[in-house]
Design brief:
By secondary structure, this protein is mainly α. The chain has 19 helices and eleven strands.
Length: about 550
Amino acid sequence: MKLNRICLFILACVIPASCVDLNYSEVNTRDEEWTYEYYAEGIKNMVFDVYAQVYNNEFESNSAYFLAGATDEAQYALENGAVNNYVNGGWSAANPYSHTWEKAYTAIAEICMYLEKIDQTDISEWKYNPDYDIWNQQMELFPYELRFLRAYFYFELLRAYGDVPLVTTTLTNEQANTISRTPADKIVKFIVDEIDEVAPHLPVSYLTEVGAEIGRATRVAAYALKARTLLYAASPLFNKTNDKAKWAEAAEACKFILDRTKDWNLKLSTYSALWGHEAFFNQEIIFGLGRVESNSFEMDNYPVGVENGKSGTCPTQSLVDQYEYIDNGETFASRYPGAINLKQVDPYKDLDPRFALTVVKNGDEWPTNGSQKKIIETFNGGFNALPAYGATPTGYYLRKYVDGNCVTTTDNQTTRRHTWIIFRLGEFYLDFAEAAFYATGSANDKTFGMSANEAVNTLRKRADIAMPEFTEDGEAWVERYERERLVELAFENHRFWDVRRWMKGNKYFKTIQVANISSDLQLTRSTVTRQWDDKYYFYPIPQSEITKNSALEQNPGW
């Protein structure tokens, strides 16, 4: 049975890029009559085209699409990496870089078309096909899956642009080019209402559904989307008056998930099992994007000096400085604020185990496959260091998400499956903690059945982590919580958005720290200044859309 599940998982994940040419309108290149009379190549492929817009947004194998490089988590090794546009002034309405607007509205237009024409689907001429009953049962779920996906795309638009046009019907080109933006609170209400309506109709798991095609929208994923949306809606970027009722609503939505982990077969895994060949079947992952076997991500992120390694996304000293020690919770930065003689002291000893699972440092054996394993040298002049072209500019390389078992040599290459996390259980312990703290004003209040500190400590007490518990409150709690969220969710594309919704770009994103390790192993920090402007809290609406539709008011500052 497991092999069959894997085959179906691969089928669902090699969905081609969308073959529609929708541009925020109802135009579609498919023959309409044919589409609604053929199942596998017509109706089902149209649904998969919508999923493809999720798969192809910010999770390309090319690490330039890794948003960590535009945060204090990492720096992209090559200056011409597209992600650097976010921090070097190359970002503008004329060069919006992100494809979020285009991909989201392409998907939304397709969804609206399908929902309006669902009554005309007729595959009765296939009734003697042995899969006919399976097709009909899957078609019963498609409208609910698509409504979930429409809500998901509106969340992506909300967090990127704020107010956006709310479209729930197909539009003519004239209508599309005259529509205006809908206030963010109404977008939030639409998402929440949609989830409340469709979630009960979605299965908790597809393993018990006909075909067992896992990877599709589930009831659990729907409630996860609701909880995350409400957390964003309660955050300072969207909650200017700090309405505690919004925080309470977010806390309740998160707790709804946490209270049903046993019913939904969810549980926290070890940290290292969150990625790798078998991660798609990890019980902590609520919604993940599976990829067929590949080694392109490894080529993009293996160190220079490892055959076909391109360095890619390199963790910063700013990130390393936030890890705590297992004995007393002191941070790397507070224990070693100045220069470090790596010949005399090992500053990485007894750090939070998540550090070694996330970051490759000088002296580590990496990658783990036998044919390429070597001692990594990031000191100046070292085998994997500057001045070699493309070597890490930060003193570190990425381990998290990178499968060290992949062989990237020109000959005898090996490949592995990859899963990019969209929602996982661990996030919602953190989301709950944040929402409960701001709703009650205390990290120890149990109004919601669990305190913020209890939620965070649940994560930190995992067998492979076992870090000192949170006991703080007040501003000290906020500082430690933001550090914990950075560490736990590193490189899962949260930091880029978290700092924005907190409106703390000036604090975290204007400068980063990188490590310089001399040839005699003296580690010092250097400051890298980046461009930050408060207008970056929201993306610019693409100028091409403003040109077509004068009713679209541009975001402030752009």
